[in-house]
Amino acid sequence: MSKARPFRFGVVAESAPSREQWVTLVRRAEDLGYATFLLADHFVNEFPPIAALMAAADTTSTLRVGSFVFDNDFRHPALLAKEVATLDLLSDGRLELGIGAGWHRDEYEQVGLPFESAGIRISRLEEALRIIKQFFTEEAVNFAGSHYTVTDLKAFPKAVQRPYPPIFIGGGGKRLLSLAGREADIIGLHFKVNDDGTVDASERSEGAIAQKVEWVRQAAGERFAALELNLLIGTIIITEDRRQAAEQYVRERDRPGPTVEQLLANPYLLIGSVEKLTEQLQRLREVFGISYFVVGDEYMEVFAGVVG
Asked: What global pTM score does this model have?
């Protein structure tokens, strides 16, 4: 039996009202033992990731920083590769590159970007990954595809991490997770978001996670054992009475939602004492091989008992 991968924990944040508060937040994450500090890439978020991640790296010494995730449609992959290489160089090799095909239709419409089918967006991401990897491993980039053409682009600066910073791809559908299995180092097992922005209740279940892990396994082949599997935890409730807390959660919702039983079985939602939460994470690692968990910065302090 292969040895279990060590746990890693990350914090994903959006912004802070001032530099001082941003620095305090980032340093607190490092002090609490979190391994990574992450930012999403949305027009609707206050901080875009590149400048904020550089500031986070500058104020810490061991904390890794990363995108969670760059939307491939927002930047040409050649420009993104140069930005990522620069971030990795200036952070002394502490960057993790998360990249995705984009999913938030509203912000595409806000800025006039066409929100094309998932198939087209994923095809574009596939080409982008080839360009980005070539940038990190070759002296120049030459690529001609259906979506991008790059001709004799000098590949500099060079990143510290070789062959390139770890690549994170998260997703909920078979095609995207299969791409992740072939190309990524870290894979986020996310619930699938429908085109209308809804999520089927069945997606938030261990059965759905088992299926997603199998898609990754089939695509990854022999490299599966080297992959790190990730879960983004949406809600954390520290309590000695799981059922009572779940019942209260259901009562307080202002719209139809999951039942108490569905909540208690939801792997993306942690309810219980610190000891119970630790057991839940250990079980997710034992059963599915998931060892990397990310929480929002609003849960950073309450989750610290598990991290420590």
From this structure: 0.95
Amino acid at 89: L
Give the DSSP H/E element, type plus range, for residue 253.
Answer: none
Pick the closest to residue 103 from 185, 14, 169 (CA basis): 169
- Residue that the structure tokens 């595809």 belong to: 145
Q: How confident is the model at residue 2 (pLDDT cuts 50, 70, 90)?
A: low
pLDDT bucket at 1, cuts 50 / 70 / 90: very low
Report d(CA 76, CA 72) in Å as an integer: 7
Distances (CA, A) of 125 to 26, 38, 77: 30, 20, 9
DSSP 8-state code for residue 2: P
Alpha helices (runs of H) in the chain, residue ranges in sequence order: 19-31, 49-58, 77-90, 105-110, 118-137, 174-183, 206-220, 242-252, 260-264, 274-288, 304-307
DSSP-derived secondary structure letter, 98: E
**What span, in angstroms and rounded, lies between the C-alpha atoms of 301 and 308?**
11
Query: How do beta strands 149-154 and 140-144 pair?
Result: antiparallel
Find out whether 209 and 288 touch, Cβ atoms under 8 Å. Answer: yes
Do residues 227 and 288 lie in contact, with contact meaning Cβ atoms separated by under 8 Å? no
**Contact of 263 with 236, CB cutoff 8 Å:** no
Distances (CA, A) of 235 to 54, 164, 203: 28, 32, 16
> Phi and psi for 273 in degrees, rounded to 5?
-70, 165
Query: Which range is least confidently modeled, 49-53, 78-82, 134-138, 252-256?
Result: 252-256
Q: What is the pLDDT of residue 193?
A: 77
- DSSP structural state of residue 166: P
Least confident of 2-6, 137-141, 242-246, 298-302: 2-6
Instruction: Give the tokens for residue 78.
Output: 């050649």
Q: Which amino acid is at 128?
A: A
- The more confidently predicted of residues 116 and 251 is 116
Q: Which H/E stretch holds residue 266?
A: none
Res 288 pLDDT > 50? yes
